[in-house]
Amino acid sequence: MKRAPRKPTVIVHKTDTLDYKNLELLAKCIGPQGQILSRRRTGLTTKRQRELKQALKRARHLSLLPFVG
Fold it and tell me: How many domains are there within the chain?
């Protein structure tokens, strides 16, 4: 039996900008311990997931987001 595909828990639309200043969107893509959620959970493509990672790193280094939950 095939398992039904999971629906992403956080939906990031194509028009949403993955920028370090968009804290509301970045906060949705972080788990309770502060880790970046997987592509399965965010529903992003590989390229957009890399952009998300870079934006989160920038926001953390500028102290806009915590490193740990």
Answer: 1
pLDDT digits (tens, 9 = 90+) for 10-62: 778 888 889 999 999 999 999 999 999 999 888 899 999 999 999 999 999 99
| CA R_g for the chain | 13
In a domain, 49, yes or no: yes
Give me the domain span that covers residue 52: 23-61
